[in-house]
Amino acid sequence: METHSVPELFGSLVFDDRQMRSRLSSKVYASLRKTIDEGSKLDPKVAESVAQAMKEWALEKGATHFTHWFQPLTGITAEKHDSFISPSPDGSVIMEFSGKELIQGEPDASSFPSGGLRATFEARGYTAWDPTSYAFIKDKTLCIPTAFCSYGGEALDKKTPLLRSMEALNKQALRILRLFGNTTAKNVKTSVGPEQEYFLITKEMYDQRPDLKYTGRTLYGSRPPKGQEMDDHYFGVIKPRVQAFMNDLNEELWKLGILAKTEHNEVAPAQHELAPIYSTTNIATDQNQLMMEIMQKVASRHGLVCLLHEKPFAGVNGSGKHNNWSMATDTGINLLSPGDTPYENAQFLLFLCAVIKAVDDYQDLLRLSVATAGNDHRLGANEAPPAIISVFLGDELSAILDAIEEDKPYSGTEKKIMKLGVDVLPAFPRDNTDRNRTSPFAFTGNKFEFRSLGSSNSIACANIMLNTVVAESLKIYADRLEGAEDFEKTLHEMIKKTIKDHKRILFNGNGYDDAWVKEATEVRGLCNYRTTPDCMPHILDEKNVKVLTGHGVFTEKEIESRCDIMLENYCKQVRIEANTMIDMAYRQVLPAVTAYADKLSETVAAKKAVTGSLACSYETTVISRLSVLADQIYERTGAVEKAIITLADAADVIAESAAIRDDLLPKMGELRAAVDEAETLVSSKEWPYPSYGDMLFSVR
Ligand code: ADP
Ligand code: MG
Fold first, then answer.
1. Over the Cα atoms of the chain, what is R_g?
2. How many other CB atoms sit within 10 Å of the CB of residue 225?
3. What pLDDT, on a 0 to 100 scale, did the predictor assign at position 26?
4. Considering the entire predicted model, what is its pTM?
5. How far apart (Å, rounded) are the C-alpha atoms in residues 447 and 674?
6. Which of 113, 439, 626, 693 is the most exposed place for a label (fewest CB within 10 A)?
7. Which residues neighbour 372 within 8 Å (Cβ) at sequence distance 6 or greater?
């Protein structure tokens, strides 16, 4: 590290509030602040002044270019760099940047997926500055966080609907707060702290694996003798090379104003986690995208590769992202914090119930918000968390809700019947609420932790759905309470009814248990969508379209196009995997298997020449097994090829994704099994790829 102290470093590449305050006139600053805090319209004159200040700051920091930085539906971020250079009549150049360039851009966006929203004659979408997320400098480029829309105004990105969903929640939550007599809060924003898991392996190993390079995960690979059985990696001592990476990463993230805080080893060997301190949802979303990018960049400086795929190694714990989510007022009240007074408690219970109701009513939307080909290897398989969405509250809080539902004394310390708005909730220790690691959606004291996100997912999708469905519960509550004659009585009844109607979604037990799957699906009637093709089409279900359009988060056309794009992404991803498997099988695996069998045959011939007998039981046994396996690999590769060709018959993308799930993926699994067995028989020197053991234990 250079000599800079952390506070000096922190945010040094961000045009943050400190910069705005010191570089803008107080009038311009106040106007911009109003736009940021209250969403008021941005005055073009203000934009002009901000652009000038931003440009000067960026030039001082050595930037030469600017870009509208946005999040198209491909899942990554996009940028198109323009330089500040503008020719001067005397032949020199000046560095220019206007208010118009700040607030709006027009990338030629015809090759971003739009799901049919953008006809080719109007291929250019436009980008619009999101002033609530600070501009920053990356690679000498001023990056301006922006939304990306078509000329018809349809969202082509993830930021636009995310901002709309935050606004929907803000509106409904404020209605509730006013009913509770809160007249001071100006807005309610959702906050998120995403914990990010990842693997690190050496670049040297990575470069030898076409599957990692093309698809992010290993498509072949037999299990190592040592996996994660010993649990000796979790929170274990961080290896020096990893520590050097983490130090460097922290420094880069701090410069970008990202509050990287905790870092530790995860369950699997070579797996780690990084958690930032939470921030407002759209900022957390931008920063998580940025964080994933920087992680990969910093890793390569250390001769490492950072794998963000959900399941880089079969049979080894996969990587997810925990989306810690809450709602808070601008006055600093966390609405999911129980508080100390009866009044605060009642308000807390209402917001808590709003979440419970929302998760139960829209399990499918939450499930599909995290669905990708990669994440199917976690959620659909026997891994944490399961594909079934349920809510964990912990024993204490569950007992309180039970007592309220049945008007019976709460059997905690006080043993009395809870009267909302009058009685104080019994204190429940926060620690008690965070012990169940198998739950997909857990209350952890003052926030919910949605654990189903995949490690490479943008957190935008999950939060769009979460914000919207909670806004819907709050709307239903506000509608009833605003018309109620007896506020407290209605409140009490509503909470009771929510508990009664939605307690099927509450589950404190072990989410990995087979018995839970049976109970959840057969007794409780919860959804169990194991794969992306299973869940994604449900975004088109009437109730889902209604809630998403009702709160102005998506138009019907946007929903249809998103469903198409998500399924197309799924199909493309698996096709690339299948093609990579075929290529590896024909050009590397089969040649290696036959070459090794040939080598053994030579040994057999040599031994025979010396001893005159064929008594080479080791060599001949391996040769015959390899011969059988080579035939199998050859046949099964052919079957995968055929399955790909058959996909062309699918009527639409829904049918194609179903064919991939039912036909192509199982065939890929069969091919893999044969190759993995061959790997266990062929000399490691002859095998074309580093083994799981090599990769997982490569970084010292
Ligand atoms: P654990 O590993 O036990 O889940 P961590 O401390 O690693 O806990 O992560 C907790 C995450 O939750 C952090 O990113 C933290 O900033 C975030 N968090 C804490 N309070 C809130 C809140 N009110 N809203 C959103 N996220 C929060
Ligand atoms: Mg966590």
1. 28
2. 7
3. 96
4. 0.93
5. 46
6. 693
7. 75, 310, 454, 456, 457, 532, 566, 569, 570, 573
Which pLDDT score, from 0 to 100, does residue 342 have? 76
Domains of the chain by range and CATH? 3-157 (3.10.20.70), 165-554 (3.30.590.10), 569-696 (1.20.120.1560)
pLDDT mean for each 10 residues of the chain (700 residues): 75 95 96 87 90 95 93 82 86 86 76 66 72 93 91 86 97 97 95 96 97 98 76 76 93 93 83 94 96 96 97 94 97 93 88 98 98 94 85 89 84 61 65 68 94 96 98 98 93 95 95 90 96 97 98 96 95 98 98 96 88 78 96 98 97 97 98 97 96 90
Q: Which of 384, 305, 320, 377 is nearest to 574 (CA)?
A: 377
Q: 3-state DSSP call for residue 78?
A: strand
The pLDDT of residue 122 is 54
Contact 618, 574 (CB under 8 A): no
- Please list the alpha-helical segments (H only) found in 69-130: 99-103
Q: What is the pLDDT of residue 435?
A: 60
- How far does residue 11's CA lie from ligand 1's centre (Å)? 21
Q: Which amino acid is at 91?
A: G
Alpha-carbon span 368 to 570, nearest angstrom: 12
Do residues 304 and 241 make contact, with C-beta atoms less than 8 angstroms apart?
Answer: yes
Torsion sign over Cα 488, 492, 493, 497: positive
Listing DSSP states for 203-239 in one string gives: HHHHTT-HHHHHHSS-SS-PPPSS-STT--STT-PPP
CA distances from 175 to 189, 410, 547 (A): 14, 30, 18
Alpha carbons 285 and 462: distance in angstroms, whole number: 10
Which run of H or E residues covers position 176?
A: helix 159-179
Residue ranges around ligand 1 (CB below 6 Å) = 191-193, 195, 262, 275-278, 322, 324-326, 334, 434, 446-447, 449
Cβ atoms 190, 283 nearer than 8 A: no
Residue having the nearest C-alpha atom to atom 22 of ligand 1: 326
In angstroms, rounded to a whole number, what is the distance separating the alpha carbons of residues 506 and 440?
11
Backbone angles phi, psi at 225, to 5 degrees: -60, -35
CA of 88 to the centre of ligand 1 (A): 52
Q: Are 217 and 311 in contact (CB under 8 A)?
A: yes
pLDDT score of 105: 79
Atom of ligand 1 nearest to the CA of 278: 16
Q: Show the 3-state SS of 33-52.
A: HHHHHHCCCCCHHHHHHHHH
Output the six-digit token pair for 144: 């301006």
The torsion angles phi and psi of 209, rounded to 5 degrees, stand at: -120, 100
Specify the pLDDT at position 121: 47
- Please identify, by atom number, the ligand 1 atom nearest to the C-alpha of residue 337: 23
